[in-house]
Write a structure and sequence with these properties.
The chain is an all-alpha fold. The protein has 2 domains: 45 residues; 64 residues. It is built from 7 helices and no strands. Helix 1 crosses helix 2 and helix 5 crosses helix 6. The chain is elongated and about 70 Å long.
């Protein structure tokens, strides 16, 4: 089982080996070619930093999350499929699984929880 410290140590060792090879050869470009580290060749010293792939911002579907939660206040007893169909008619393309994911993130998965949210919404003082 590997943990974060083991992964960090391996990454640090790989970078140190790369720098030692560049020092021995006296040529960073050649060291990059030999160790197949194209990031260092393209990005210089910044290429030695760990690069994480994937989106840096929230998923675009998160923008429709508030719209979906507002819909659930209005129609609190609708199931995920019906919410999906109604939001599709309104121009929002959000899947059934995404709706259930939003409900799960906000503790609204059972209908009872959605009804409690409606009650909290109306009991909250209007500010």
């Amino acid at each position: 089982m590997t943990d974060n410290t083991t992964i960090a140590r391996k990454a640090a060792r790989r970078k140190l080996n790369h720098l030692e090879l560049a020092n021995d050869l006296g040529n960073v470009s050649e060291a990059c070619r030999r160790s197949s580290t194209r990031y260092t060749l393209s990005f210089g010293s910044q290429g030695l930093l760990d690069r994480f792939r994937g989106p840096r911002n929230p998923h675009p579907g998160r923008a429709t999350e508030e719209q979906q939660k507002d819909y659930c206040l209005e129609y609190r007893t609708h199931g995920a499929l019906r919410v999906n169909q109604q939001l599709t008619l309104r121009g929002s393309n959000i899947g059934v699984a995404a709706i259930r994911g939003i409900w799960q993130r906000h503790d609204l998965l059972p209908r009872y929880q959605r009804l409690l949210r409606l009650e909290r919404h109306y009991r909250a003082p209007n500010s």
